Amino acid sequence: MTITATTPPVCGACNHHRDDHDTRKATCAACAADCAYRPPRALACGHCYEEHGQEVHPHPDCPVGHLETVIDRWPALQERAGTRPATSWPPAMGVSRLMSDEERQELADERADTNPDAPGPRPAPVDVDVLDVMTTVETGLVTAADWLASRIQREPVTAPAGKGWGDEAHKAAVLLAAKDAADPARWRFTGQRSASAAAAWLAARLAARPGPCRALDDGEREAIVEVARMAGELVRRALGDARRVEEVPHPCPQPCGGQLVVEGGDGAPPVVRCQGCGRTWTEEAADVA
Fold it and tell me: Is 1 exposed, middle or buried (0-12, 13-18, 19+ CB in 10 A)?
């Protein structure tokens, strides 16, 4: 898989536009920094560039950015999992008027059973959907890290441990072996194997950071890029950061009888849209597209 990126017209040293630089004086007119225009350094992800000497992965298609989303948003996901969902997805909106009497009764019974004010013992607050997302993401990332490490990670260095070895060369070899085995860049097949740890290790491999591993080939990179994309998307959806589109199991009430879909879930007002006639409905008021 070959990835090409277009070099942005900013300086890799001060992040100002290249036209603001006086190459003869080696200064930036925008910030007076002592630098001539320096082309930004492309990062190993193939989508982003170094900014102010730091690796930043803001591109929406950047696989390292997807993995960093998992790391940064995982605490929020854990907090969300410990609360009862306030709203369901997809939102009912006006579609509830299209339900049969039996469907409406089933929905009412479900709401009564989960109402915290209902009589009887109540289960601990938990968002099962978020827990499912967390399990899926963590399993996928850890499995991907196991698979990749089995292919690219070399075995730890070993040193002979026979009796009578006391010379300085042997001591240095034993120390080297211990350091290599404890290398924080080494993926562990036992112990702490969380989603965040797996995401960080996979991001380091995609970014070609130092470690006891060889470089990824095209097939390995493509596989991890896909895992990263799916993990980031699942986390954003669970937290309401990504827009979703789902079909509604009811036809359009207009004569076209087309398929209805609900669009939303990203914090913006949800919309019901008919894929046949194009008519749309919002929570505020019904409208014609």
Answer: exposed
